[in-house]
Write a structure and sequence with these properties.
This is Parkin coregulated like. With about 250 residues, the protein is mainly α. Helices cover about 65% and strands about 5% of the residues. The protein starts with a helix and ends in a 9-residue tail after the last helix.
């Protein structure tokens, strides 16, 4: 009886030892896997590709066109770009050896200004080709057609805020396009612009502090006065007291 109990105790101890060995073996395997995973992670972090991403080369900044357009940095197209890509602008860009031009699907004088003229004005805020050229040239050519004043004047309440957005833009080229468009509009609508002029002059006053824009803004103000009459001069002087009238 004692031998049987002793023999049973030995078996229990052996089983316990086996279980302990199995747990120890499992623990060693888990630690080994963790070490391997950490090693892989460390090697990937220290790889040249990872180092290049965390420390971009100077050439990446100087040549942004090499950035993958399908990467995370790509953004959705602007409203004007989306309309243009869908054929919403009834013209296409023709590349010339000396300069580009627009080819309209039909004579511009047959096109409705609403909403085409406003859409082109919104495109003035674009910063990429061909949208920059299409918007500024399309806006200019549309205002040159016969009957443009009658078509443009009713759109001024909606058109002026769009032009203002271009004039307050931080990009200098966008501002310049907005300034040219404002002058072109003034030539067409004349004194009708006076009622909306005060909304546009604040941004011009701020840009006057920039030396490179002082001359073009002064020239633009003179044309606004020329086409807006004496009423425009009063408005300009109220917003920009330093302005000197063309009549002086």
């Amino acid at each position: 009886m004692q031998k049987s109990e002793c023999h049973g105790g030995v078996q229990l101890r052996n089983r316990g030892a086996d279980n302990c060995d199995q747990r120890t073996s499992s623990s060693i395997q888990i630690k080994h896997r963790t070490t391997v995973q950490q090693g892989k992670s460390s090697s990937s972090t220290n790889s040249p590709e990872s180092a290049r991403k965390s420390h971009p080369r100077p050439s990446d900044k100087l040549n942004p066109k090499t950035i993958n357009p399908f990467g995370e940095q790509s953004r959705a197209p602007s409203a004007f770009a989306a309309i243009y890509s869908k054929g919403g602008i009834p013209c296409r860009l023709v590349h010339g050896s000396v300069k580009h031009r627009l080819q309209w699907e039909c004579p511009p004088e047959n096109l409705p200004f609403d909403p085409l003229l406003i859409t082109l004005a919104e495109g003035l805020r674009e910063t990429k080709h061909p949208y920059t050229f299409v918007s500024k040239e399309g806006f200019r050519e549309l205002l040159l057609v016969q009957g443009a004043p009658e078509k443009a004047v009713p759109l001024l309440p909606r058109l002026v805020p769009v032009l203002k957005a271009a004039l307050v833009h931080l990009d200098d080229d966008v501002f310049a396009r907005g300034l040219n468009a404002l002058v072109q509009l003034s030539v067409v609508v004349g004194p009708s612009l006076n009622d909306h002029l005060k909304h546009l002059l604040t941004s011009l006053s701020k840009r006057l502090r920039d030396k490179k824009f002082k001359e073009p803004i002064t020239s633009a103000l003179q044309k606004l006065e020329q086409h807006g009459g004496s009423g425009s001069l009063i408005i300009i002087k109220s917003k920009i007291p330093t302005y000197c009238s063309i009549c002086c």
